[in-house]
Amino acid sequence: MLEVRNLRKVYGEEPGGYVALEGISIDIAAGEFLCLLGPSGCGKSTLLNILAGFEEVSAGSVMFDGRPVKGADRDRMMFFQDAGSALLPWLTVEENVRFALRARRVPRSQWDDIITRYLSMVDLNNHRTKFPAELSGGMRQRLQIARALAVEPRVLLMDEPFAALDAMIRRRMHAILTDIWQRSGQTIVFVTHDIAEAIALADRIAIMSVGPCSSFMKIMDVKGARPRDMGDPASSAMFAEIERLLTPEIRRSEERLG
Ligand SMILES: Nc1ncnc2c1ncn2[C@@H]1O[C@H](COP(=O)(O)OP(=O)(O)OP(=O)(O)O)[C@@H](O)[C@H]1O
Ligand SMILES: [Mg+2]
C-alpha cells in the first residue's frame, strides 16, 4: 500500500546540506504494523513526516495506493505524536471524539456507534461527560488513542507516542493499541527508540543506522503471537540481536554529538 523507493532527504541546500536519509526503500503492506527503530537523531521522525506528506523528499519516491504522496492526506493518514497535548480542554471526552469525526466528515448517523465502540475499547465509556482536566494522565492518553483510531484512518503514523509514559501504563497502551489494530485492520507505522517496545508491537522492525545518510541496516520479521513477553526465548534472542546491531550505532551517535 505504501511504497518507498530509494528515498533521499537533505536538509538545506545541496551540496553542503545535511543528508538525513539516503537509499531508504520499503514496501508497507495494508494491515501491517511496522516499527521504525533507531537511535536519537537517525531520522525516524523525518521519515514519518515524509510518509505523512509534511516533508518533501529530495530524491526517490513515496507512493500510496500507486500514487505519489503530495502534501498531507488527512483523510487517509493520521499523525499521532506526544500524546497528552492535543486534546481540546473545553470539550468533554465524547465531544473530543465527535469533534474528530466531524472534522473528518464521518456521516453523523454513525457518530454515536463509533464513539461508544472506541470509548469502550479504551475503558472510557463511563467517563464520557468528563473534561480532559478531570482525567488521569493514562486516561487522557487512552482518549487520544481512541480519538485517533475512531476516524478509522487507513494509515496511522505514530511518532514515539508512549515515550513519556511509565512502564506499566505503556504496557497497557500496547495492549490497547494491539487490540484495536487487530480488530480494525489499519496499517500502522510506529516510531520508537525502545527495542522492547518494537518487539512487543511490530510485524516487522526496520532498524535505522545513525546519520548522516541514515538507511535501513536491517528489516526484521517479528514472529510469535501477541502479547509478547520479553522473557520468551524468541523475543529475548531478537532483543539481543537488535542490541548487537544498534550498540555500535549508538556509540557513533554519541561521538557525533560530542
Ligand atoms: N528542519 C530541519 N533542518 C535541518 N536539520 C534537521 C531538520 N529536522 C531534522 N534535522 C536533522 O535530521 C536528523 C534526523 O532528525 P529526526 O528528527 O528525523 O531524528 P529522530 O530519529 O526522529 O530523532 P529522535 O529520536 O531524537 O526524535 C537530525 O540530525 C536532525 O538534526
Ligand atoms: Mg523523532
Summarize this entry quickly.
The protein is of the alpha/beta class. The protein has seven helices and ten strands.
Describe the protein in words.
- Belongs to the ABC transporter superfamily.
- This is ABC transporter ATP-binding protein.
- InterPro entries: AAA+_ATPase, ABC_transporter-like_ATP-bd, ABC_transporter-like_CS, ABC_transporter_ATP-bind, P-loop_NTPase.
- With 258 residues, the protein is of the alpha/beta class.
- The protein folds into 2 domains: 1-76 and 155-169 and 187-258, P-loop containing nucleotide triphosphate hydrolases (Rossmann fold, 3-Layer(aba) Sandwich); 84-153, no CATH class.
- 37% of the residues lie in helices and 24% in strands.
- It has 7 helices and 10 strands.
- The strands form 2 sheets. Strands 6-7-8-3-9-10 form a 6-stranded mixed β-sheet, with helices on both faces.
- The longest helix is centred in the C-terminal third of the chain and has 25 residues, at 233-257.
- It is globular.
- The N and C termini lie far apart (40 Å).
- The model has no long low-confidence stretch (mean pLDDT 90).
- The structure holds adenosine-5'-triphosphate and magnesium ion.
- Residues 11, 18, 20, 38, 40-46, 193, 211 line the site of adenosine-5'-triphosphate.
CATH fold type of the largest domain: Rossmann fold
Strands of the widest sheet, in order across it, are: 6-7-8-3-9-10
CATH class of the largest domain: Alpha Beta
Name the poorly predicted regions: none
Oligomer: single chain
Number of domains: 2
Order of helices and strands: EEEHEEEHHHEHEHEEH
Largest sheet: 6 strands, mixed
- The CATH architecture name of the largest domain reads 3-Layer(aba) Sandwich
Keywords: ATP-binding, Nucleotide-binding, Transport
Family: Belongs to the ABC transporter superfamily.
Protein name: ABC transporter ATP-binding protein
GO molecular function, one term: ATP binding
